[in-house]
Amino acid sequence: MSGPPAAVAAVRVAVRHCLRDLPPGPVLVACSGGADSLALAAATAFEARTAGRPAGLVTVDHGLHPDSAAVADRVVALGHALGLDPVRAVRVAVGRTGGLEAAARTARYAALESVAADVGAVAVLLAHTLDDQAETVLLGLARGSGTRSLAGMAAARGLLHRPLLGVARETVRQACADEDLPVWEDPANADDRFLRVRVRRDVLPLLESALGPGVAAALARTARAARDDADALDALAAQADPFADGSAAVEDLLAAPAALRRRWLRSAALAVGCSASALTAGHVDALEALLLDWRGQGPVHLPGGAEGARACGRLVLTPHPDR
């Protein structure tokens, strides 16, 4: 008897490896109805059933387009048809903090973690592919935010797991076609107001055309290498962090390698209430200038009303007065 088509098999194998690394207990698939998450849902239903593991589905309705409720209903029906249980649809309110994409992501992840806690899931599976990882690396390059930004998305972080980071989008879409899954095309994926859409539509194809095939895979390998380096440096920085009560001796900061010093500065800024999404490399540059280019300048203003200032041989970070 012949096995499944190659694309279907590739997605199933990726999910199988992910499930093997998880502790016992139910898993949830986050499914929008798009090709990537539908292929993931179908593969998870098959692999979980084979392994005797409970598996469910959750779809998040962001309410950002007129048909969102109807799409959520279709995804719920598909989840039941695949044999997943439980199947949930959650409507969220999307704010505007950090931009529409970031606000939608924040609302979505909060909803996913809430449903996971409610059903006792040990993991929520997300359908980001190798191509999504490549786009994330290019966006990190454009921001110039260092190795952590170039590290892309983690394969696993807390409850969130991404089994398909090593699988090309083309393969995932072929798996949907092979299984005759009814794919919904999100209008946002063609909206060039979003930077990621322009990277996907214009930048990556241009790189592939100019440099040859394999650019997305190379960028994904870069992400893995950058993540290893960033994790090691973060661990070293945490072990020797000189900040205490929001301040550190200037001489200690100047004596450290730049890679550690800049991590300490970022960590200290986060500790006094700066939002991670709002804190940029430029803010860290400004704090570092108080050490490397000291001319008696005034305080550095940070997101959320925090400040950094140099006084009496120390770099002092203070939160907003209301905090």
Automatic annotation (TrEMBL):
Residues 27-201 form the tRNA(Ile)-lysidine/2-thiocytidine synthase N-terminal domain. Keywords: ATP-binding, Cytoplasm, Ligase, Nucleotide-binding, tRNA processing. Residues 250-308 form the tRNA(Ile)-lysidine synthase substrate-binding domain. Pfam families: ATP_bind_3, TilS. It catalyses: cytidine(34) in tRNA(Ile2) + L-lysine + ATP = lysidine(34) in tRNA(Ile2) + AMP + diphosphate + H(+). CDD domains: TilS_N. The keyword Zinc does not apply. GO terms for molecular function: tRNA(Ile)-lysidine synthase activity. Its EC number is 6.3.4.19. ATP binds at S32, G33, G34, A35, D36, S37. The keyword Glycoprotein does not apply. It is found in: Cytoplasm. It comes from the Bacteria. It is an enzyme of class 6 (ligase). InterPro entries: Rossmann-like_a/b/a_fold (IPR014729), TilS/TtcA_N (IPR011063), tRNA_Ile_lys_synt (IPR012094), tRNA_Ile_lys_synt_N (IPR012795), tRNA_Ile_lys_synt_subst-bd (IPR015262). The N-terminal region contains the highly conserved SGGXDS motif, predicted to be a P-loop motif involved in ATP binding. NCBIfam families: lysidine_TilS_N. Belongs to the tRNA(Ile)-lysidine synthase family. Ligates lysine onto the cytidine present at position 34 of the AUA codon-specific tRNA(Ile) that contains the anticodon CAU, in an ATP-dependent manner. Cytidine is converted to lysidine, thus changing the amino acid specificity of the tRNA from methionine to isoleucine. This is tRNA(Ile)-lysidine synthase. The lineage of its organism: Bacteria, Bacillati, Actinomycetota, Actinomycetes, Kineosporiales.
